[in-house]
TrEMBL record:
<dbReference type="InterPro" id="IPR051536">
    <property type="entry name" value="UDG_Type-4/5"/>
</dbReference>
<protein>
    <recommendedName>
        <fullName>Type-5 uracil-DNA glycosylase</fullName>
    </recommendedName>
</protein>
<keyword id="KW-0004">4Fe-4S</keyword>
<feature type="transmembrane region" description="Helical">
    <location>
        <begin position="172"/>
        <end position="195"/>
    </location>
</feature>
<keyword id="KW-0234">DNA repair</keyword>
<keyword id="KW-0408">Iron</keyword>
<dbReference type="InterPro" id="IPR044147">
    <property type="entry name" value="UdgB-like"/>
</dbReference>
<keyword id="KW-0227">DNA damage</keyword>
<dbReference type="InterPro" id="IPR005122">
    <property type="entry name" value="Uracil-DNA_glycosylase-like"/>
</dbReference>
<keyword id="KW-1133">Transmembrane helix</keyword>
<keyword id="KW-0812">Transmembrane</keyword>
<dbReference type="Pfam" id="PF03167">
    <property type="entry name" value="UDG"/>
</dbReference>
<keyword id="KW-0479">Metal-binding</keyword>
<comment type="similarity">
    <text>Belongs to the uracil-DNA glycosylase (UDG) superfamily. Type 5 (UDGb) family.</text>
</comment>
<feature type="domain" description="Uracil-DNA glycosylase-like">
    <location>
        <begin position="69"/>
        <end position="244"/>
    </location>
</feature>
<dbReference type="InterPro" id="IPR036895">
    <property type="entry name" value="Uracil-DNA_glycosylase-like_sf"/>
</dbReference>
<keyword id="KW-0472">Membrane</keyword>
Amino acid sequence: MARDADGYPVTRTPAGVVRGARTAVDLAAVDERVCGCRACPRLVAWREEVAVVKRAAFRDQVYWGRPVPGMGPADARIGVVGLAPAAHGGNRTGRIFTGDRSGDWIFAALWRAGLANQPTSVAADDGLELTDCRIVAAVRCAPPDNAPTPAERDTCSPWLARELALLPRLRVLVVLGGFGWSALLPVLAAAGVVIPRPRPKFGHGAEVTLDAPGGPLTVLGSYHVSQQNTFTGRLTEPMLDAVLTRAVDLARG
């Protein structure tokens, strides 16, 4: 596999994503290959343009400008599935949900739930660590208007599938938003998880326990921690805390 100037393995096609994900032996390999992915031309162009143009408040910073890998330990029993990196958040800092207001919300909530060692996430080297939890995204590149296309979602799905497969203790998935929910269910079905018909519908507080090859897997829904939801009060801290508390109870109980 060819490598780019920074040493990351380069993947340029959907077929290459499938091969790269399938042969990744551990989470570190998945993360490295994600960082070199160039399989979606629209997303590559956008993330790199943002990294050059920048936001005025960050004009002196060097943007990451690459796909953003997941974060969290391989023994995690809880997974959190987001949509995609923010243009001036994860696309700037190189760490998922880091450096924007959505990250302020989710990491503070994870800290309150005992799943993070600190309530803030401002930079990739700020000392944040997760316990028993791994955060992933349905799409790994910042998309224009926060809206990946279905084709981009499907191209990226092998990374998500492999990442979840490499979490052997996984028992609960917290899905932030309807896009993540619709991206996740086909990935689970392809992994042998029994998805009921009709398919479970997304909603805040939605809960479904599925028959998975490794044992029961519970999927919980939460409104996304986007500013559109948090600024308007559609999602409140107690609402988010309730979902994460339920996840902890299920994972550890």
